[in-house]
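Researcher: I'd like a structural prediction for the single chain below. Treat it as a standalone chain; there are no partners to consider.
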Amino acid sequence: MSQFPHPSLPSSVKEPWLAVNLSLFFPGIGQLYAGKIIRGHSLIITQVGLYALSGWLILSQIGNIFIGELLLITAFALSIWGIFDAYDCAKTANSPSFEKLRTSQKDPWLAVFLSRLVPGAGHLYINRLWFSVLFFTFFVISLLVQLVPILLKSLIFYHVYIASTIRRERNQLPILGMALVSILFSLIISLQIFFIKTHIADTHIIVTNEMKPTLQRGDHVIVDKQIYRFKSPQRGDIVLFSPPEPLQDNHFREAFIQRIIGLPGERVEIQNGRVYINSQPLEENYPQKLSQYSFIPITVPANSYFVLGDNRNHSYDSEDWGFLPRPNILGKVTKRFFPPQRIGIVSS
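Model: Treating it as a single chain, here is the predicted structure.
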């Protein structure tokens, strides 16, 4: 069976599975390719709006995380619909004769789509079994090396296209451009995620019951990493922090989550289960277990904080290892997004 292009095919024909592949980059692009300009731009604007609003609702301290997650699910569902719609838009733009020709053969753009979903699946579709096994194995192994999966996945779907027996394009520029854009797009997304996780917000899984009942083992929380660029940590804030030196000496490496009790320059003590700040009892409006121990008055050094777990008698905190240096604070815990029954703002 020979390869295309066919000089008899008009340049106006649209490849439905190419439209699908374009929609994987961002919903609406496939519709633009199919000639549905208003539809494509409307879908792009809607998706951007949904992502922006859901991100704000989830990450901001005053946003409703439940509504934010619903909008995020809506955006995902709309993107799935956009894939099917892009296919239909491209298909309806073609003549019946071209559609009959297209569906009678192995579609190279379908092979590309399958390879983007599962590396090796596209080669299996075009009956290249050994390439399928080889590329799938290489991809699984490459997951151990950063950035390699991105490059390898683009190489795989580029190869599956040029390995297809039937190709309708007059040159390889479309698939080459898609492979390069895929690499660039993936790198940009990876850099954005890295920037957000490092400077704006990150997630953390609670692995102990030191903050029980406020936070329980298995809770997934959002940590605001930019809040303390604009203001100092406050009493009552639940903070994520890297282990101070005394903990590192004991081979603690994972980040801790505890509540700020004493501020720089304050005198902290614990008597009869109550916390005293500068000899005055601390009003704690959040659930906590009263301490079954006493702690002699001690002054918090400058640029340091005194932190305790809400589960006072089962928490490894400042009462055990000392003060928390300000540079060790990574961010403030603001919201819980999992499990579903515990979604909401974390009390301060």
